[in-house]
Specification:
Helix content: 40-55%
Number of helices: 22
Length: about 575
């Protein structure tokens, strides 16, 4: 159980921490070497030095690789010490999070009604579940009926504003938020405050992205913070344009967004980078945003492609015209909850959220061997950009039924969904997913076709078209799948999987040039995908471009040595060269 204590700051230069980054690096590395060996392989500084803003990565050791989907974590900061500490804490956060979820003893699996009988006075109100998806018009009785279709993983969570513990279906919030809200720190107070600030950041960014309001532009010169001034100068001396925006939207803590581009290297060697930071003070929020830009940008000279998350990615300067509008504001215009005691800052944030109708919860996810504080934090009703704006309780329950439940249980549950939501756009889609699980691919394709015209937005329609194609590829109907993928891409050209699957279809038909173009398009969205690099290598092999094929396969295998199908082609090409 989380029990908050006073936590006075021991470091305040570019971020507010309980101890200095040097102490964090030393203590975390010691834990990883002694109590929990095999989590960390190494840390490494990866920026080119052009901006002069350090970026570090932490590389997973074998123990972390067993439970984590990623192999590297990036860290940012205004100093090398803080950037390295950040990279280490990212590893702690994710390793702890995935280990927590992979430990069944952390949970009690119950239906909602069973949990209500077990903890009548300690169960999260069902109204918070309804609020978590912003659903209007669903009764609490229908919500319970839907929740009872699934057995949930219940775990106690600490409500920060009231310091009370309640039992929550934690996998519900994981399904909604994925690992948004996970955090790590030197203390509970530090960790939870950082996680809560990131939740606020993701929420306001989602709202701004959906509504595109005119917001104030922050004048960096209005601050006398020396760290912020130095960071802004790092951009200016390299000719990189930087615009800071106030994305706070009336929340208790300030959020500063940053959009940056280099006219000298864009678009050939750099991208437009758009991100944001939230903290207890405007200066610290701005520092977080600016150092995040440096983390994503590859020093604006390395052709690095970053993957958008909390905010969208722009590819043309005209797309950011709306960010250049708005009145000028000073840093002092933004809210501030600064206090020497981090616990007090956290309490101010939690109480401010409560006054707005939002409740901050936190769960202790600290790894028992590692012993470095980690948390999973959530606020029912908060958004994040990647979640559909058309979410509902039924949609998420339906997804669980279609993907995880036993067949008969899923069929009965989907019929209940159809009763509660008689005109739902998602019921035929989930019937299609269930049919895929049962290997009835043509029935699945028909259900996805039925669902596509019902969808409320292009992104959802694109997914239906993609799954129609996917079902057909399972039947090796490669040519027939292509028109569905073309429709998916027309609806939403930002999803790498659409290009990847169309590339596979062209490859299977022997059209290696078209396949190569699609694999390259997928890599343009996610440059770090070894499978698509290997696919591109095979295309070049069959087009007769053997040198290019070797290069692509070499890079792919260096990123993922387990691609044995690619290795066979690679070794064949090397043998031909010899």
């Amino acid at each position: 159980m989380i029990r908050l204590q006073d936590c006075f700051k021991g470091y305040t230069t570019d971020q507010d921490k309980a101890v200095t980054p040097e102490q964090t690096v030393a203590s975390v590395k010691a834990c990883m070497a002694e109590a929990c060996a095999g989590v960390l392989q190494e840390t490494d500084r990866v920026d080119t030095g052009r901006l002069g803003i350090p970026v570090f990565v932490s590389k997973c050791g074998p123990k972390a690789a067993e439970v984590m989907p990623t192999r590297k974590q990036m860290g940012k900061g205004a100093s090398p010490e803080q950037a390295e500490a950040s990279a280490l804490m990212e590893l702690v956060e994710r390793f702890s999070y995935f280990t927590f979820w992979n430990t069944p003893s952390n949970f009690e699996e119950l239906t909602w009604s069973e949990a209500a009988e077990r903890w009548p006075d300690e169960l999260l109100p069902v109204s918070e579940i309804i609020k978590s998806v912003g659903e209007i018009g669903l009764s609490e009785a229908d919500a319970v009926r839907l929740l009872d279709l699934v057995r949930w993983k219940f775990h106690p969570a600490h409500e920060i504003a009231t310091e009370k513990d309640v039992y929550v279906p934690l996998d519900w919030f994981k399904k909604l938020n994925e690992f948004n809200g996970s955090s790590a720190g030197n203390t509970f107070e530090e960790s939870i405050l950082q996680g809560a600030c990131e939740l606020v950041e993701r929420h306001v960014c989602a709202v701004v992205d959906r509504t595109r309001p005119e917001l104030p532009t922050i004048d960096p010169a209005s601050s006398d913070d020396p760290v912020l001034a130095r960071l802004v100068e790092c951009f200016a001396k390299c000719g990189v344009k930087l615009v800071l925006k106030d994305f706070t939207l009336g929340f208790p803590v300030p959020t500063v967004a940053a959009v940056a581009w280099d006219p000298g290297t864009f678009p050939g060697l750099s991208e437009i980078v758009f991100t944001a930071g939230t903290s207890a003070t405007p200066e610290k929020a701005a520092v977080r945003a600016v150092t995040e830009v440096a983390q994503l940008a590859g020093d604006f000279e390395t052709s690095r492609v970053y993957e958008a998350s909390g905010l969208p990615k722009f590819t043309q300067l005209e797309q950011i015209d709306w960010l250049r509008q708005g009145p000028t504001a000073s840093v002092g215009d933004l809210p501030d909850v600064e206090h020497q005691n981090i616990r007090q800052e956290l309490q101010s944030l939690a109480e401010g959220l409560k006054a707005m109708g939002y409740t901050l919860f936190s769960v202790d996810t600290t790894h028992p061997e590692l012993g470095v504080t980690a948390n999973y934090n959530f606020v029912p009703g908060f958004l994040f950009r990647e979640r559909t704006p058309h979410a509902s309780l039924g949609m998420f329950v339906g997804r669980i039924l279609a993907e995880e439940a036993e067949f008969d249980e899923a069929l009965i549950g989907l019929e209940v969904l159809a009763e509660v939501y008689p005109d739902a756009h998602f019921v035929p889609f989930f019937k299609g997913l269930l049919a895929l699980r049962m290997d009835d691919v043509m029935f699945a394709a028909d259900r996805f076709a039925e669902a596509e015209p019902l969808q409320p937005a292009p992104e959802e329609a694109a997914l239906c078209a993609f799954y129609q194609a996917y079902a057909l590829t399972l039947a090796e109907e490669w040519e027939e799948a292509v028109p569905h993928l073309e429709r998916a891409i027309a609806h939403d050209a930002e999803v790498k999987e659409f290009f990847n699957l169309r590339g596979v279809c062209f490859f299977r038909q022997g059209d290696y040039e078209a396949a190569a173009a699609d694999f390259q398009a997928s890599l343009d969205i996610d440059s770090g995908n070894p499978e698509d690099l290997a696919n591109l290598g095979l295309c070049h092999k069959f087009m007769g471009n053997k040198a290019e094929a070797v290069d692509y396969l070499d890079v792919a295998l260096s990123m993922n040595p387990g691609l044995e199908w690619a290795r066979a082609h690679y070794e064949e090409l090397l043998a031909e060269q010899d």
